[in-house]
Each structure stands twice: as C-alpha cells, then as structure tokens.
Write a structure and sequence with these properties.
By secondary structure, the chain is α+β, with helices and mostly antiparallel strands. The chain has one domain: YefM-like domain (YefM-like fold, 3-Layer(aba) Sandwich), CATH 3.40.1620. The protein has five helices and three strands. The chain has a three-stranded mixed beta sheet. It is elongated and about 55 Å long.
Length: about 90
C-alpha cells in the first residue's frame, strides 16, 4: 500500500478515518505542502521506543556486516571536519 499523505485540513475533517488507517501504516499529515507530523499505531510507537534503546555488541553483527563497515569510506563532505581530528593530536 502506498504511503498515506493528507493535508491538515483533511485530517481534521476525518480524524477517525486516518486514526484507523494509522493502525496498519503511517499517515503523514502535511501543512502548507510540507510534512508536519506522522501518525502511527501505539504498537509501532512502542516497538520504535524499544529499538531506540537497543544496544548492540560486535557479536550481534554478521561477518558480512563487519566487512561492509570496514570497506566504508566517508563522504567527501566529511573532510570539512578533518581539523577536529588534527587538533586532538
């Protein structure tokens, strides 16, 4: 199902309908053409809160995950912060 985006005016008119939709997938409420808020189910909110506090150790990653991290290169834009590394030396 495609993402649901609704204007704040439409959301106010049919809040119950969109609250029901949010039980199965996020509903984005826009204002002046910009995404303003997202309504999700309480269950999904709790799942995200639990995950937010999840701490992983190296043992939680596959070797493929660790190899992918080792191959990563910083984006060019990151060079703007090189001076911070040099000043710690």
């Amino acid at each position: 199902m495609p993402p649901v985006r609704v204007t704040s005016t439409e959301f106010q008119r049919e809040v119950g309908r969109y609250a029901d939709m949010a039980l199965s997938h996020p509903v984005t409420v826009t204002r002046n053409g910009r995404d303003r808020t997202v309504m999700i189910s309480a269950e999904e909110y709790q799942r995200l809160k639990r995950r937010d506090r999840e701490v992983l150790g190296l043992e939680d990653f596959t070797q493929a995950d660790l190899d992918a991290v080792a191959r990563m290169e910083p984006p060019v834009e990151a060079s703007a912060y090189d001076h911070e590394l040099k000043s710690r030396g």
